[in-house]
Amino acid sequence: RSWKDMLLFRKNKKKPTTTVHTKVDFDHLPRHVAIIMDGNGRWAKKRGMPRTAGHAAGAETFRTIATYCKDIGLDYLTVYAFSTENWKRPQEEVGAIMGLLRKYLHEAIQEMAQDHIKLQFFGDLTSLDPELYQLCQETRKISEGYDGFQVNVCLNYGGRDEIVRAARKFAQDCVEGKAKPEELTETSFANDLYSAGIPDPELIIRPSGEIRTSNFLLWQSAYSEYYFTDVLWPDFSPDELLNAIASYQGRSRRFGGV
Ligand code: IPE
Ligand code: IPE
Ligand code: MG
Q1: What is the mean pLDDT of the chain?
Q2: In this structure, which residue's CA is closest to atom 14 in ligand 2?
Q3: Ligand whose nearest atom lies closest to the CA of 233
Q4: Angle 70-58-90 from CA coordinates, rounded to 5°
Q5: How far is the CA of 58 from the centre of ligand 3 (A)?
Q6: What's the pLDDT tens digit per position in 141-175?
Q7: Does the beta carbon of 79 sit less than 6 angstroms from any atom of ligand 2?
Q8: Are 242 and 20 in contact (CB under 8 A)?
Q9: Which parts of the chain sit beneath pLDDT 70?
Q10: Is 147 a catalytic residue?
Q11: Could you give the CA distance from residue 129 to residue 11 in angstroms, rounded to a whole number?
């Protein structure tokens, strides 16, 4: 970034307004935060509403948090929206989630020229319905023209599936004589994952009280710091995000060293 851009960038950063903000060092934010957007169903159940209402509320929270991440100056936000295992849910719930994704992408495409939020997708999009697949492709294409803050939406995503795909591709390259087994390295393997070229997330947040990864970013999370909170995703707020970042900033990351 040029100095002029840097100044503009800092000016545009959200000013600390509450006590939560004072706990965060805004000059040393993580570059990449990942979130498992969990707890929509329980949020709705607590209110006597259908689970789909929880997903709609969760989609709103996603907008708020993505915009906030951009405003404070993160480089990447990766969100878990639909897992390879979520197809096990009742057909009407899956349909409602897909409907919300279509709605969100239609709106995002309209707003992209203003927002300049770069959207990418991690996951096998080919098994999505054709309209949703097209919307993803269109969003991806528009995004190619932007740099800056990027959101990766994990859609029909599974960490194991991602690793198996990369392994299969390498095996195929070997069969075709384009590669040799001894040439495979962690770096070359990572280049065949959905996250190719993107730094690993420093911080992974899971709301809703579950303490597990549920197949999220298995490779990329090798040295990520985890933050768990009982707050359900639709209730997650920028202050919750700052609490997570403050917790992350208070930790000592050793990467196996001393
Ligand atoms: C996360 O919320 C959204 C998706 C998995 C698509 P859930 O629907 O899992 O909500 P809970 O965990 O049942 O409360
Ligand atoms: C993980 O949540 C997937 C997403 C949030 C998209 P789940 O609700 O599917 O995870 P489990 O079933 O509690 O492990
Ligand atoms: Mg859940």
Answers
A1: 93
A2: 214
A3: 1
A4: 140
A5: 12
A6: 999 989 899 999 999 999 999 999 999 999 999 99
A7: no
A8: yes
A9: 1-18
A10: no
A11: 42
The structure tokens listed for 168 are 């299969």
Report the separation in Å between the CA atom of 40 and the middle of ligand 1, taken as the mean of its atom positions. 5
Instruction: Tell me, using a 6 A CB cutoff, whether residue 237 lines ligand 2.
Output: no
Ligand 1 center from residue 234 Cα (angstroms): 10
Q: Is 82 in the pocket of ligand 2 (CB under 6 A)?
A: yes
Q: Which two tokens stand for residue 57?
A: 């509320």
